[in-house]
Amino acid sequence: MVNPNPAARRALPSVDRLLTSSAVALVVARYGRALTTDTIRELLQVQREKLAQNAGTFTFDEAGFIAACDASLAKQTQPSLRPVFNLSGTVLHTNLGRAQMPQSVADAVMTAMTRPVNLEFDLGGGARGERDTHVEKWITRLAGGDGAVVVNNNAAAVYLALNSLGAQRAKPEVIVSRGELIEIGGAFRIPDIMKRAGVKLVEVGTTNRTHLKDFAEAITPRTAAIMKVHTSNYVVQGFTAVVPEPELAALAHERGLLYIVDLGSGMLVNLEDYGLPHEPTPREALANGADLVTFSGDKLLGGPQAGLLVGKKELIARIRKNPMKRALRVDKMTLAALDALLRLYTNPDKLREEVTTLRLLTRTRADIRVQCERVLPPVQAALGGNAQATIIDTGSQIGSGSLPVDSLPSAGIAIAPAGKSKSSFADKLSQAFRALPVPVIGHIKDGAFVLDLRCLDHENEFVAQLKGLNI
After folding, report:
1. Could you read off the pLDDT of 58-92 as tens digits, one per residue?
2. Which of 35, 220, 409, 470 has a CB 3.0–4.6 Å from the CB of 365, allowing a cystine?
3. How many domains does one find in the chain?
4. pTM of the model
5. Among 354, 377, 400, where does a domain finish?
């Protein structure tokens, strides 16, 4: 459309003229000339389109335009990966980055990021080294086994373990109980990963009951291993039967097969010692006869995203020689984080206070309620009479496929409309909390917006920003 008011269009300054402005020079100093120039062009085009539909008088507000440009650039250059307050009620929230790591672990990563390190250099012999050796001694000390390999996540660990079987026999078969053919977030399925790894899945038993004879009858000359998958993200209850691990291991070894255990989450200490439900450990699996165990680093362990394989030395050596090991290996930051975290596990007496995940999981409801009482008044003040906030008892989830049916007694703040209930109120309130400078992630239950305070660190920062809540 041709603008009926050409004079108004001529009132818009050129890009070059704006770039000579002293106010724009300050913007350029903050964001760079190229990005500032592109943003000015985009905003001027928006202004031209508005003028094309308006025949009235027009006065260019240069100060307002530059302020809008500065605001646009601030939004464009804001980091995409941002801190949030995880008040969702799920401690190990996959979408929120899972485990929070201790400061000592973060410090180790910072050193590895900013300084040269002996990643693959043997300081003693002066020759090339193996990167896994930086953590192997701690993994085997804490988990058992003769050797260990680290890759980028547990799915990769399972893949690498199975793919390495192909070196021993053509088209190897692996037997798994039907009740353990899990799917985790992101549509990762055991049958799919086995197919990609080049092994044939042999399902035995039923969803709820599998017996030792089912495994025994499925063994053929092509069978390479029996695999047990820990159902960490669901529980089959009722009329069920599973084969004890020592019996599975004995059958595998009697027939010359490997016995592999995928723990999924995995933990290095007995959680019952900390008042939490039991979770199988790699040491237990190895003691029950496993030749190889895989587990995660960023779930219950409380560390960086990583997949750990631990077991017999000859199997670890075979896996390390697999060409796919290089494709799935971790970088120096992950190894630095894992090394620092594992060293914390060598002192169980201080583990609760030093490992962030364990500290959050073991907070008592009474402790969380005290925090709720401190936070409630500023939350209520920020609502401005538009809603009513109350302290409630709630239950936190552990998350990330760990202990799926176990709930941790917790407490939180429930926010509901002050007047007549509105079905959209909780959604709008959730949006308003996410729009804060440090977004706040809660959850909606029974028409109320709930903030579970189990994971609320940086309380002062949380309270200070509430004054900006816009509902």
Report:
1. 788 999 999 999 999 999 999 999 999 999 999 99
2. 409
3. 3
4. 0.88
5. 354
